[in-house]
Design brief:
single chain, alpha/beta, TIM Barrel, 14% strand, globular
Length: 304
Amino acid sequence: MARSGAIGVAGPSLFEEMAHDVNVSFEFFPPKTPKMEETLWHSIKTLEALHPEFVSVTYGAGGTTRERTHKTVKRILDETSLTPAAHLTCVGATKGEVDEVIRDYWEAGVRSIVALRGDPPEGADSYTPHPGGYENAAALVEGLRAVGDFDISVAAYPERHPDSANLAADLENLKRKVDAGANRAITQFFFEPDSYFRFLDHCESYGIDVPVVPGILPVTNFATLKNFAGACGASVPAWLGKLFEGLDERPQTRSLVAATVAGEMVRRLYAGGVRDFHFYTLNRAELTYAICHMLGIRGADEEV
């Protein structure tokens, strides 16, 4: 028997209101093998139907995927209706070499860049600017602005970048990137909406006035997630680990749990006023597609 008053105590469902004013973007990484390339292009074509604002293509640590990144971005530009945004880092190259890459993108018709300091090359313990190179992401943004009128995204860290001494230093660094000409910031992934909303308050207090887009990482593999989180300073709540316990050999169930967790989070963010979302797809379309569906986005074949 239902207890009196139990129905409706929690208010309307997070999924009750259909969202019609949402913008999404997707991140991919360049493929290493023919099989991975097949998976990537299946994902790109699947998610193209959701009409994202742009899709970004990552850049390996130390610039190790420069050629593959450029090739993938150029193919997206040539063979799809999507707007590609190329990742670009300061690592392992002089200013002249980076400027050459920037000009190559501009001449190819690429107008969107994700400007990043970049991770240390493999085997290095910490980041060291390349002699004669751009010192950091703020300097890279200035370099981009000197070449052309790019749409520039930069990184933001709701839980602080591991190399920053404290949150204040991190926010000051983000402010420098914005003052240099960044159009928006995209956050590292997180799993507690409150941490994102607190970060927005901090950004406002520092005069950071560009959009700060939440980065959403659907959990495809919990062990991999913990490695990602350890490298970038993101926290993984204990409740999330408990949800994925015992599912290592149950990929379909794991995907259902992952979609539910991320679907609830994006709807909570939407309820808090967020209208732009950036998804780290890991080159897998279905999970991201499902989350976007729960957010209220429909592909052309789903529209009624």
